[in-house]
Amino acid sequence: MRYSAFYQIVDGIVDELQVMVWPGETTPRRRLKNEQLEKLKYSVEKLIRDSVSIRHSTHRKALASIHLGKDHYKASIYNEMLTYRIHVERCFNGMIELGYLKKEKRGVYYPKGKRYLTRYSATKKLLDRFPKSLGTAMPAFVPQAQNINLIRVQQNFKTEVNGVRVERKKLLEYEETSHTKLMRANLQKINDTINQFWFDLRLDDGDFTAMQVQMLSKKQRKQGVDRQLNLSKRNLHRVFNDVKMTLGGRFYGGWWQEVPKGYRQYIVMNGKPMVEYDYANLHPRILYAEAGLIPPDDCYSDVYPKCPGWVMPDPDNMRKAVKIALNAMLNAPAELKRPPSAFRRKDCNCSWAELSAAILERHHLIADKFYTGQGLRLQRIDSDIAEYVMLHFAKYNMPILPLHDSFIIRSGYEESLEKIMQEAFHQIVGSSIEIKEKKPSHPDKMSEAERAVWSKVQLQKDDMTPVTDDIYELLAYMETGHEKRLSIFLDLGSNG
Description:
Elements lengths: L3 H16 L14 H19 L11 E3 L17 H14 L3 E5 L2 E2 L5 E2 L1 E5 L1 H4 L23 E11 L2 E8 L6 H17 L4 E3 L3 H10 L3 H5 L14 E4 L7 E5 L14 E3 L2 E8 L2 H9 L24 H17 L13 H4 L3 H11 L12 H20 L6 E2 L3 E5 L3 H16 L5 E3 L10 H9 L14 H8 L2 H15 L1
Parallel strand pairs: 6-9
Antiparallel strand pairs: 1-5, 2-5, 3-4, 6-7, 8-11, 9-10, 11-12, 12-14, 12-15, 13-14
Helix pairs in contact: 1-2, 2-3, 5-12, 8-12, 9-11, 12-13
Protein backbone atom coordinates (compact mmCIF):
# COMPACT_ATOMS: atom_id res chain seq x y z
CA MET A 1 0.00 0.00 0.00
CA ARG A 2 1.20 3.52 -0.85
CA TYR A 3 0.26 4.78 2.61
CA SER A 4 1.14 1.78 4.80
CA ALA A 5 3.51 3.88 6.95
CA PHE A 6 0.72 6.35 7.67
CA TYR A 7 -1.66 3.58 8.74
CA GLN A 8 0.99 2.17 11.06
CA ILE A 9 0.96 5.52 12.87
CA VAL A 10 -2.84 5.38 13.07
CA ASP A 11 -2.81 1.83 14.47
CA GLY A 12 -0.21 2.75 17.09
CA ILE A 13 -2.32 5.64 18.43
CA VAL A 14 -5.47 3.47 18.36
CA ASP A 15 -3.67 0.96 20.58
CA GLU A 16 -2.71 3.74 23.01
CA LEU A 17 -6.30 4.98 23.19
CA GLN A 18 -7.50 1.45 23.93
CA VAL A 19 -5.26 1.05 26.99
CA MET A 20 -5.03 4.63 28.30
CA VAL A 21 -6.17 5.41 31.83
CA TRP A 22 -8.22 8.60 31.89
CA PRO A 23 -7.78 11.30 34.56
CA GLY A 24 -9.79 10.41 37.67
CA GLU A 25 -10.03 6.75 36.67
CA THR A 26 -7.90 3.79 37.81
CA THR A 27 -8.23 1.32 34.94
CA PRO A 28 -8.54 1.55 31.14
CA ARG A 29 -12.02 1.82 29.69
CA ARG A 30 -13.64 -1.08 27.88
CA ARG A 31 -11.76 -1.93 24.70
CA LEU A 32 -13.66 -1.27 21.51
CA LYS A 33 -14.13 -4.19 19.15
CA ASN A 34 -15.48 -5.00 15.71
CA GLU A 35 -17.56 -2.15 14.24
CA GLN A 36 -16.77 0.23 17.09
CA LEU A 37 -13.05 -0.44 16.70
CA GLU A 38 -13.30 0.39 13.00
CA LYS A 39 -14.99 3.67 13.92
CA LEU A 40 -12.22 4.46 16.38
CA LYS A 41 -9.61 3.85 13.66
CA TYR A 42 -11.57 6.02 11.26
CA SER A 43 -11.72 8.85 13.82
CA VAL A 44 -8.01 8.70 14.61
CA GLU A 45 -7.22 8.70 10.90
CA LYS A 46 -9.46 11.71 10.30
CA LEU A 47 -8.06 13.76 13.17
CA ILE A 48 -4.48 13.07 12.09
CA ARG A 49 -5.21 13.71 8.43
CA ASP A 50 -7.04 16.96 9.05
CA SER A 51 -4.31 18.39 11.27
CA VAL A 52 -1.21 17.03 9.53
CA SER A 53 -2.05 17.33 5.83
CA ILE A 54 -2.34 21.12 6.06
CA ARG A 55 1.28 21.51 7.20
CA HIS A 56 2.83 22.86 4.01
CA SER A 57 4.59 25.83 5.55
CA THR A 58 7.24 26.05 8.23
CA HIS A 59 6.25 29.62 9.09
CA ARG A 60 2.65 29.17 10.15
CA LYS A 61 0.80 27.05 12.67
CA ALA A 62 -1.66 24.69 10.96
CA LEU A 63 -5.10 24.69 12.59
CA ALA A 64 -7.74 22.07 11.78
CA SER A 65 -11.40 22.32 12.78
CA ILE A 66 -13.82 19.95 14.48
CA HIS A 67 -17.54 19.92 15.32
CA LEU A 68 -18.06 19.43 19.06
CA GLY A 69 -21.87 19.49 19.04
CA LYS A 70 -23.73 16.19 19.41
CA ASP A 71 -26.26 17.07 16.71
CA HIS A 72 -23.54 16.95 14.05
CA TYR A 73 -23.01 13.22 14.62
CA LYS A 74 -26.52 11.91 14.01
CA ALA A 75 -26.47 8.69 11.98
CA SER A 76 -27.39 9.06 8.29
CA ILE A 77 -26.30 7.89 4.84
CA TYR A 78 -23.70 10.66 5.04
CA ASN A 79 -22.36 9.70 8.44
CA GLU A 80 -21.91 6.01 9.13
CA MET A 81 -18.51 6.15 10.80
CA LEU A 82 -18.39 9.20 13.08
CA THR A 83 -20.23 9.17 16.41
CA TYR A 84 -20.04 11.76 19.15
CA ARG A 85 -19.15 9.19 21.81
CA ILE A 86 -16.22 7.74 19.87
CA HIS A 87 -15.02 10.62 17.69
CA VAL A 88 -15.25 13.45 20.23
CA GLU A 89 -15.37 11.93 23.71
CA ARG A 90 -12.98 9.05 23.24
CA CYS A 91 -10.80 9.96 20.27
CA PHE A 92 -10.46 13.76 20.16
CA ASN A 93 -10.36 14.21 23.95
CA GLY A 94 -8.18 11.11 24.29
CA MET A 95 -5.59 12.33 21.77
CA ILE A 96 -5.47 15.63 23.67
CA GLU A 97 -4.85 13.74 26.93
CA LEU A 98 -2.13 11.70 25.25
CA GLY A 99 -0.49 14.88 24.00
CA TYR A 100 -1.01 14.30 20.27
CA LEU A 101 -3.47 17.15 19.72
CA LYS A 102 -3.87 20.61 21.23
CA LYS A 103 -7.06 22.64 21.32
CA GLU A 104 -6.13 26.10 20.04
CA LYS A 105 -9.35 28.11 19.67
CA ARG A 106 -12.82 27.55 21.02
CA GLY A 107 -15.72 27.62 18.58
CA VAL A 108 -17.69 30.87 18.54
CA TYR A 109 -21.17 31.93 17.45
CA TYR A 110 -21.71 35.54 16.52
CA PRO A 111 -25.07 37.36 17.00
CA LYS A 112 -25.71 37.50 13.22
CA GLY A 113 -25.42 33.76 12.85
CA LYS A 114 -21.77 33.52 11.79
CA ARG A 115 -19.99 30.63 13.42
CA TYR A 116 -16.49 29.21 13.57
CA LEU A 117 -15.65 25.69 14.66
CA THR A 118 -13.24 24.73 17.41
CA ARG A 119 -9.66 24.71 16.11
CA TYR A 120 -6.93 22.28 17.06
CA SER A 121 -3.39 21.45 15.95
CA ALA A 122 -1.04 18.49 15.77
CA THR A 123 1.56 18.65 18.55
CA LYS A 124 5.27 17.97 18.24
CA LYS A 125 4.64 14.56 19.79
CA LEU A 126 2.35 13.61 16.91
CA LEU A 127 4.61 15.11 14.24
CA ASP A 128 7.58 13.23 15.70
CA ARG A 129 5.88 9.96 14.74
CA PHE A 130 6.32 10.90 11.09
CA PRO A 131 9.62 10.71 9.19
CA LYS A 132 11.82 13.66 10.18
CA SER A 133 12.62 14.46 6.54
CA LEU A 134 9.02 15.29 5.59
CA GLY A 135 8.76 18.90 6.74
CA THR A 136 6.56 20.76 4.25
CA ALA A 137 5.99 17.50 2.35
CA MET A 138 3.59 16.18 4.99
CA PRO A 139 0.47 16.45 2.75
CA ALA A 140 1.93 13.95 0.26
CA PHE A 141 2.39 11.37 3.04
CA VAL A 142 -1.31 11.39 3.94
CA PRO A 143 -3.97 9.31 2.12
CA GLN A 144 -7.38 10.41 0.92
CA ALA A 145 -10.34 10.21 3.29
CA GLN A 146 -12.22 6.91 3.29
CA ASN A 147 -15.94 6.24 2.90
CA ILE A 148 -16.79 9.56 1.30
CA ASN A 149 -20.37 9.62 0.05
CA LEU A 150 -19.80 10.66 -3.55
CA ILE A 151 -23.40 11.63 -4.28
CA ARG A 152 -25.00 14.21 -1.98
CA VAL A 153 -28.22 16.17 -1.84
CA GLN A 154 -28.00 19.51 -0.08
CA GLN A 155 -30.74 22.02 0.65
CA ASN A 156 -30.38 25.63 1.75
CA PHE A 157 -32.80 26.95 4.33
CA LYS A 158 -33.22 30.00 6.50
CA THR A 159 -33.46 29.90 10.26
CA GLU A 160 -33.35 32.35 13.16
CA VAL A 161 -30.28 32.67 15.37
CA ASN A 162 -30.44 35.18 18.24
CA GLY A 163 -33.27 36.99 16.48
CA VAL A 164 -31.42 37.19 13.16
CA ARG A 165 -32.45 35.33 9.99
CA VAL A 166 -29.47 33.37 8.68
CA GLU A 167 -28.95 30.85 5.90
CA ARG A 168 -27.99 27.27 6.69
CA LYS A 169 -27.45 24.06 4.72
CA LYS A 170 -28.57 20.52 5.44
CA LEU A 171 -28.04 17.19 3.75
CA LEU A 172 -31.10 15.24 2.60
CA GLU A 173 -31.38 11.47 2.32
CA TYR A 174 -32.28 10.12 -1.10
CA GLU A 175 -33.34 6.89 -2.76
CA GLU A 176 -30.60 4.71 -4.22
CA THR A 177 -31.32 3.95 -7.87
CA SER A 178 -29.51 2.53 -10.88
CA HIS A 179 -28.83 6.12 -11.92
CA THR A 180 -27.20 7.10 -8.61
CA LYS A 181 -25.12 3.91 -8.74
CA LEU A 182 -23.93 4.78 -12.26
CA MET A 183 -23.04 8.35 -11.25
CA ARG A 184 -21.12 7.02 -8.25
CA ALA A 185 -19.26 4.49 -10.39
CA ASN A 186 -18.38 7.19 -12.92
CA LEU A 187 -17.12 9.47 -10.19
CA GLN A 188 -15.02 6.69 -8.71
CA LYS A 189 -13.31 6.25 -12.10
CA ILE A 190 -12.60 9.98 -12.22
CA ASN A 191 -11.23 10.04 -8.66
CA ASP A 192 -9.09 6.95 -9.25
CA THR A 193 -7.48 8.70 -12.20
CA ILE A 194 -6.83 11.92 -10.25
CA ASN A 195 -5.32 10.06 -7.30
CA GLN A 196 -2.58 8.47 -9.39
CA PHE A 197 -0.92 11.89 -9.73
CA TRP A 198 0.27 14.64 -7.42
CA PHE A 199 -1.18 18.13 -7.88
CA ASP A 200 0.42 21.11 -6.22
CA LEU A 201 1.13 24.83 -6.50
CA ARG A 202 4.54 25.89 -7.73
CA LEU A 203 5.04 28.41 -4.93
CA ASP A 204 7.61 28.71 -2.19
CA ASP A 205 6.49 28.60 1.45
CA GLY A 206 6.14 32.36 1.81
CA ASP A 207 4.09 32.76 -1.36
CA PHE A 208 1.94 29.77 -0.36
CA THR A 209 1.12 31.50 2.91
CA ALA A 210 0.37 34.77 1.08
CA MET A 211 -1.97 32.89 -1.25
CA GLN A 212 -3.89 31.44 1.69
CA VAL A 213 -4.46 34.96 3.01
CA GLN A 214 -5.97 35.84 -0.38
CA MET A 215 -8.48 33.02 0.14
CA LEU A 216 -10.11 35.12 2.87
CA SER A 217 -12.38 38.13 2.51
CA LYS A 218 -11.30 41.45 4.01
CA LYS A 219 -13.83 40.98 6.79
CA GLN A 220 -12.47 37.52 7.62
CA ARG A 221 -8.93 38.87 7.74
CA LYS A 222 -9.98 41.55 10.22
CA GLN A 223 -11.69 38.91 12.36
CA GLY A 224 -8.49 36.86 12.44
CA VAL A 225 -9.99 33.90 10.59
CA ASP A 226 -7.41 31.38 9.41
CA ARG A 227 -7.90 29.14 6.39
CA GLN A 228 -5.46 26.58 5.11
CA LEU A 229 -5.38 24.65 1.88
CA ASN A 230 -5.42 20.87 2.24
CA LEU A 231 -3.49 19.44 -0.69
CA SER A 232 -4.56 15.90 0.17
CA LYS A 233 -8.17 16.78 -0.77
CA ARG A 234 -8.34 15.38 -4.29
CA ASN A 235 -11.53 13.30 -4.18
CA LEU A 236 -14.53 14.85 -5.92
CA HIS A 237 -18.19 14.46 -5.02
CA ARG A 238 -21.39 15.70 -6.66
CA VAL A 239 -23.86 17.95 -4.84
CA PHE A 240 -27.48 18.05 -5.98
CA ASN A 241 -30.12 20.42 -4.65
CA ASP A 242 -33.23 18.22 -4.79
CA VAL A 243 -33.88 14.55 -4.04
CA LYS A 244 -34.94 13.93 -7.65
CA MET A 245 -31.51 15.21 -8.70
CA THR A 246 -32.80 17.55 -11.38
CA LEU A 247 -31.03 20.57 -9.85
CA GLY A 248 -27.34 21.19 -9.24
CA GLY A 249 -25.04 18.19 -9.50
CA ARG A 250 -21.76 20.08 -9.73
CA PHE A 251 -18.46 18.57 -8.61
CA TYR A 252 -16.84 19.72 -5.36
CA GLY A 253 -14.11 18.60 -2.98
CA GLY A 254 -10.88 19.35 -4.85
CA TRP A 255 -8.44 21.75 -3.21
CA TRP A 256 -7.84 23.56 -6.53
CA GLN A 257 -11.41 24.89 -6.35
CA GLU A 258 -10.42 26.99 -3.34
CA VAL A 259 -7.40 28.60 -4.99
CA PRO A 260 -7.85 32.29 -5.92
CA LYS A 261 -8.15 32.78 -9.67
CA GLY A 262 -4.82 34.57 -9.97
CA TYR A 263 -2.93 31.57 -8.56
CA ARG A 264 -4.33 28.85 -10.82
CA GLN A 265 -1.49 29.44 -13.29
CA TYR A 266 0.89 27.85 -10.74
CA ILE A 267 -1.00 24.54 -10.47
CA VAL A 268 1.20 21.63 -11.57
CA MET A 269 0.63 17.90 -12.15
CA ASN A 270 3.60 15.76 -11.12
CA GLY A 271 5.65 18.94 -11.47
CA LYS A 272 4.47 19.69 -15.00
CA PRO A 273 2.56 22.84 -16.03
CA MET A 274 -1.17 22.85 -16.67
CA VAL A 275 -3.56 24.94 -18.74
CA GLU A 276 -7.17 26.00 -18.14
CA TYR A 277 -9.94 26.13 -20.74
CA ASP A 278 -13.51 27.29 -20.17
CA TYR A 279 -16.86 27.57 -21.89
CA ALA A 280 -17.66 31.13 -22.89
CA ASN A 281 -20.99 32.45 -21.53
CA LEU A 282 -22.07 28.91 -20.64
CA HIS A 283 -25.47 29.39 -18.98
CA PRO A 284 -26.89 32.08 -21.29
CA ARG A 285 -25.68 30.08 -24.31
CA ILE A 286 -27.53 27.00 -23.03
CA LEU A 287 -30.71 29.07 -22.77
CA TYR A 288 -30.31 30.41 -26.30
CA ALA A 289 -29.66 26.88 -27.60
CA GLU A 290 -32.77 25.54 -25.83
CA ALA A 291 -34.82 28.26 -27.54
CA GLY A 292 -33.29 27.44 -30.93
CA LEU A 293 -31.73 30.89 -31.14
CA ILE A 294 -28.27 32.15 -32.05
CA PRO A 295 -26.68 33.88 -29.04
CA PRO A 296 -24.61 37.08 -29.18
CA ASP A 297 -20.87 36.63 -29.56
CA ASP A 298 -20.46 37.78 -25.98
CA CYS A 299 -23.50 37.69 -23.70
CA TYR A 300 -21.80 40.00 -21.21
CA SER A 301 -21.06 42.90 -23.56
CA ASP A 302 -23.09 45.58 -25.38
CA VAL A 303 -25.22 46.30 -22.32
CA TYR A 304 -26.10 50.00 -22.14
CA PRO A 305 -28.06 51.20 -19.11
CA LYS A 306 -30.59 53.93 -19.83
CA CYS A 307 -29.88 56.51 -17.20
CA PRO A 308 -29.24 60.25 -17.51
CA GLY A 309 -25.64 61.13 -18.33
CA TRP A 310 -24.45 57.52 -18.29
CA VAL A 311 -20.72 57.21 -18.96
CA MET A 312 -19.16 53.95 -20.12
CA PRO A 313 -16.80 52.72 -17.37
CA ASP A 314 -13.69 50.61 -17.85
CA PRO A 315 -14.81 47.84 -20.29
CA ASP A 316 -13.39 45.05 -18.12
CA ASN A 317 -15.17 46.36 -15.04
CA MET A 318 -18.40 46.79 -16.98
CA ARG A 319 -18.26 43.24 -18.32
CA LYS A 320 -17.56 41.91 -14.84
CA ALA A 321 -20.57 43.80 -13.47
CA VAL A 322 -22.83 42.46 -16.23
CA LYS A 323 -21.63 38.89 -15.68
CA ILE A 324 -22.32 39.11 -11.93
CA ALA A 325 -25.73 40.66 -12.51
CA LEU A 326 -26.81 38.32 -15.31
CA ASN A 327 -25.99 35.18 -13.35
CA ALA A 328 -27.70 36.56 -10.24
CA MET A 329 -30.79 37.26 -12.34
CA LEU A 330 -30.78 33.67 -13.65
CA ASN A 331 -30.43 32.22 -10.16
CA ALA A 332 -33.06 34.38 -8.46
CA PRO A 333 -36.60 32.90 -8.29
CA ALA A 334 -38.11 36.41 -8.29
CA GLU A 335 -37.03 39.92 -9.18
CA LEU A 336 -34.28 41.18 -6.92
CA LYS A 337 -35.06 44.46 -5.21
CA ARG A 338 -31.56 44.56 -3.76
CA PRO A 339 -28.37 43.87 -5.71
CA PRO A 340 -26.21 40.79 -5.03
CA SER A 341 -23.35 41.36 -2.60
CA ALA A 342 -20.74 41.31 -5.39
CA PHE A 343 -22.43 44.18 -7.27
CA ARG A 344 -20.49 47.46 -7.25
CA ARG A 345 -22.13 50.56 -8.68
CA LYS A 346 -18.78 52.08 -9.64
CA ASP A 347 -18.12 49.18 -12.04
CA CYS A 348 -21.15 50.02 -14.21
CA ASN A 349 -21.95 53.65 -13.32
CA CYS A 350 -25.62 52.87 -12.75
CA SER A 351 -28.02 51.48 -10.17
CA TRP A 352 -28.92 47.81 -9.82
CA ALA A 353 -32.39 48.40 -11.28
CA GLU A 354 -30.92 50.22 -14.29
CA LEU A 355 -28.38 47.47 -14.98
CA SER A 356 -31.03 44.75 -14.61
CA ALA A 357 -33.32 46.53 -17.07
CA ALA A 358 -30.46 46.93 -19.56
CA ILE A 359 -29.64 43.21 -19.38
CA LEU A 360 -33.29 42.27 -19.96
CA GLU A 361 -33.34 44.51 -23.01
CA ARG A 362 -30.07 43.11 -24.34
CA HIS A 363 -31.38 39.55 -23.96
CA HIS A 364 -35.02 40.21 -24.76
CA LEU A 365 -35.24 36.92 -26.72
CA ILE A 366 -34.77 34.92 -23.51
CA ALA A 367 -36.02 37.57 -21.05
CA ASP A 368 -38.69 35.17 -19.76
CA LYS A 369 -35.92 32.99 -18.24
CA PHE A 370 -34.62 35.67 -15.90
CA TYR A 371 -35.85 35.80 -12.30
CA THR A 372 -37.29 32.28 -12.61
CA GLY A 373 -34.63 30.33 -10.69
CA GLN A 374 -32.94 28.81 -13.75
CA GLY A 375 -29.49 28.63 -12.18
CA LEU A 376 -29.70 25.23 -10.48
CA ARG A 377 -31.35 23.63 -13.51
CA LEU A 378 -28.54 24.96 -15.67
CA GLN A 379 -25.98 23.62 -13.19
CA ARG A 380 -27.48 20.15 -13.68
CA ILE A 381 -26.72 20.48 -17.39
CA ASP A 382 -23.21 21.87 -16.98
CA SER A 383 -22.37 19.16 -14.42
CA ASP A 384 -23.36 16.46 -16.92
CA ILE A 385 -21.12 18.18 -19.47
CA ALA A 386 -18.26 18.12 -16.94
CA GLU A 387 -18.83 14.43 -16.24
CA TYR A 388 -18.68 13.68 -19.97
CA VAL A 389 -15.37 15.51 -20.35
CA MET A 390 -13.72 13.96 -17.28
CA LEU A 391 -14.86 10.42 -18.12
CA HIS A 392 -13.41 10.71 -21.59
CA PHE A 393 -9.95 11.54 -20.27
CA ALA A 394 -10.22 8.96 -17.48
CA LYS A 395 -10.35 6.28 -20.18
CA TYR A 396 -6.83 7.34 -21.16
CA ASN A 397 -5.64 7.72 -17.57
CA MET A 398 -5.32 11.49 -17.97
CA PRO A 399 -6.64 13.42 -14.95
CA ILE A 400 -8.57 16.62 -15.46
CA LEU A 401 -9.48 19.10 -12.72
CA PRO A 402 -12.98 20.61 -12.95
CA LEU A 403 -13.91 24.19 -12.03
CA HIS A 404 -17.62 24.02 -12.94
CA ASP A 405 -17.48 25.67 -16.39
CA SER A 406 -13.74 25.25 -16.95
CA PHE A 407 -11.13 22.50 -16.79
CA ILE A 408 -7.43 22.31 -15.94
CA ILE A 409 -5.32 19.73 -17.77
CA ARG A 410 -1.65 18.91 -18.37
CA SER A 411 -0.06 21.29 -20.86
CA GLY A 412 0.16 19.63 -24.27
CA TYR A 413 -3.42 18.34 -24.27
CA GLU A 414 -5.03 21.64 -25.26
CA GLU A 415 -6.28 20.44 -28.65
CA SER A 416 -7.77 17.24 -27.23
CA LEU A 417 -9.45 19.10 -24.38
CA GLU A 418 -11.00 21.70 -26.66
CA LYS A 419 -12.31 18.98 -28.99
CA ILE A 420 -13.93 16.96 -26.18
CA MET A 421 -15.41 20.06 -24.51
CA GLN A 422 -17.06 20.93 -27.82
CA GLU A 423 -18.23 17.35 -28.28
CA ALA A 424 -19.69 17.20 -24.75
CA PHE A 425 -21.63 20.45 -25.23
CA HIS A 426 -23.02 19.26 -28.57
CA GLN A 427 -24.03 15.86 -27.18
CA ILE A 428 -25.87 17.28 -24.16
CA VAL A 429 -27.13 20.66 -25.39
CA GLY A 430 -27.27 20.03 -29.14
CA SER A 431 -25.38 23.13 -30.17
CA SER A 432 -21.85 24.53 -30.50
CA ILE A 433 -20.11 26.94 -28.17
CA GLU A 434 -16.96 29.01 -28.00
CA ILE A 435 -14.15 27.59 -25.87
CA LYS A 436 -11.30 29.76 -24.65
CA GLU A 437 -8.00 29.29 -22.89
CA LYS A 438 -8.01 31.16 -19.60
CA LYS A 439 -4.72 33.00 -19.49
CA PRO A 440 -3.26 34.80 -16.48
CA SER A 441 -4.39 38.36 -15.97
CA HIS A 442 -2.13 41.20 -17.02
CA PRO A 443 0.12 42.19 -14.09
CA ASP A 444 -1.70 45.54 -13.88
CA LYS A 445 -4.93 43.65 -13.12
CA MET A 446 -3.38 41.46 -10.40
CA SER A 447 -3.57 42.09 -6.69
CA GLU A 448 -0.35 43.22 -5.03
CA ALA A 449 0.26 39.73 -3.60
CA GLU A 450 -0.39 38.04 -6.97
CA ARG A 451 1.87 40.49 -8.77
CA ALA A 452 4.68 39.84 -6.29
CA VAL A 453 4.49 36.10 -6.96
CA TRP A 454 4.18 36.57 -10.72
CA SER A 455 7.28 38.75 -10.85
CA LYS A 456 9.57 36.15 -9.31
CA VAL A 457 8.18 32.81 -10.51
CA GLN A 458 9.95 31.75 -13.70
CA LEU A 459 7.72 29.55 -15.81
CA GLN A 460 9.25 27.38 -18.48
CA LYS A 461 6.81 25.99 -21.03
CA ASP A 462 8.24 22.49 -21.26
CA ASP A 463 9.09 21.27 -17.77
CA MET A 464 9.24 24.27 -15.43
CA THR A 465 12.71 23.36 -14.15
CA PRO A 466 14.65 26.18 -12.48
CA VAL A 467 16.76 28.27 -14.83
CA THR A 468 20.18 27.95 -13.22
CA ASP A 469 23.44 26.00 -13.48
CA ASP A 470 24.40 26.66 -9.87
CA ILE A 471 24.39 23.37 -7.94
CA TYR A 472 23.58 25.12 -4.65
CA GLU A 473 20.59 26.89 -6.19
CA LEU A 474 19.39 23.59 -7.63
CA LEU A 475 19.71 21.85 -4.26
CA ALA A 476 17.83 24.70 -2.58
CA TYR A 477 15.11 24.45 -5.23
CA MET A 478 14.68 20.72 -4.53
CA GLU A 479 13.96 21.60 -0.90
CA THR A 480 11.00 23.84 -1.77
CA GLY A 481 7.66 22.48 -0.57
CA HIS A 482 6.18 21.51 -3.93
CA GLU A 483 9.34 19.64 -5.01
CA LYS A 484 9.61 17.73 -1.72
CA ARG A 485 5.93 16.79 -1.80
CA LEU A 486 6.22 15.42 -5.32
CA SER A 487 9.33 13.46 -4.41
CA ILE A 488 7.61 11.91 -1.38
CA PHE A 489 4.48 11.05 -3.39
CA LEU A 490 6.47 9.36 -6.15
CA ASP A 491 8.65 7.52 -3.64
CA LEU A 492 5.62 6.17 -1.77
CA GLY A 493 4.26 4.87 -5.06
CA SER A 494 7.48 3.10 -5.97
CA ASN A 495 7.68 1.44 -2.57
CA GLY A 496 3.99 0.60 -2.32
